[in-house]
Queue: 2 jobs
Job 1
Amino acid sequence: MIQVSGKVEYRVIALGAWALVTQGGKTYELYNPPQDLKQDGITVEVKGIIRDDVMTISMIGKILEVRSFTIKS
């Protein structure tokens, strides 16, 4: 389990993808994110697992399966 903070971004790549971009510039592709997390531009803290067993056509970063999250103000 990892904990990552950053900004949620919607990427117009292939069929579209949701990403979490950290302050350091590292990008994670959010795997099946909850509906409440699909808000472009919000800052969040996410707890989840890296999925090495899943591939996507977006290929924008490591795949992060969200287990829980908190929206920061």
Job 2
Amino acid sequence: MSSITKSVASAVTRIKSQDLFKQMRELEIDHGGRIYKLRLTQLNKLILTA
């Protein structure tokens, strides 16, 4: 792995989805005053909608 790849990889934060949802199936994200909904489907997929 090159030093450029290493520095880019270390700049990304990884969060486990179970830590984000905490027993819930939907959460809201406020991005610049606009609300987005992040949902966990029955097939365990993520859907982000505005």
